[in-house]
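Predicting holo structure, iron/sulfur cluster bound.
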Amino acid sequence: MSVNALRQYLEFLKNSGIKELYYPPSDKQKKLTELQKQYSTCTKCPLHNSRRKFVYGEGNPNAIAMLIGEGPGEQEDITGRPFVGAAGQLLEKMLSAINLQRSDVYITNIVKCRPPGNRNPESEERKACLPYLLEQIQIIQPKILLILGLVAAQTLLNNNNTLGWHRGKIHYFMDIPAFVTYHPSALLRNQEWKKPAWIDLQEFQKEYEKLLAATIS
Ligand code: URA
Ligand code: SF4
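Done. Tokens:
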């Protein structure tokens, strides 16, 4: 995690009166549900103006893997759930190709409210929303991250590099190994990226299965 992100997170913890930093597995869902409710009326950035529903994230609170997209689209804004539109359907297929289901992982986004017309979230909006993601990571304690798309990758890894630069290597965010691949929406528009995306997914799967085996044994 960058020094800035850490500073921002600690500031956020202080402001929100959070004292606990570790949640036993049995308490994680309860905590996440509480926070989802608490933050659903957030007005920290202009995205709240056009929001229909706040999209916190969902999935297994004890997941080994967390998937991080960019921000809610139309269907997500309507339902309040991440990755339920066309991109979400493709994401589910990508997961099933590596023997995973939605219920195995935790899925969320960099910004929790839909940018109007699905534009990219602005830097200020990403910054305002990031503490929520950092807190989700802190609670769930995933062992591996799959970062979906360039916006999420550049935000978390704090650079302006291309997607090509991010692919094919293991990054670290908050000390957690992180893989980067194409955003499913980009794959829907560019068929030719499906092959390289499959390569990324297999790399991710290898690491995931190692972690899974280590957790079970
Ligand atoms: N695209 C995203 O980045 N996130 C969603 O939740 C849906 C589409
Ligand atoms: Fe708050 Fe994040 Fe929504 Fe902005 S995008 S209003 S910071 S929840």
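The chain has a mean pLDDT of 94.
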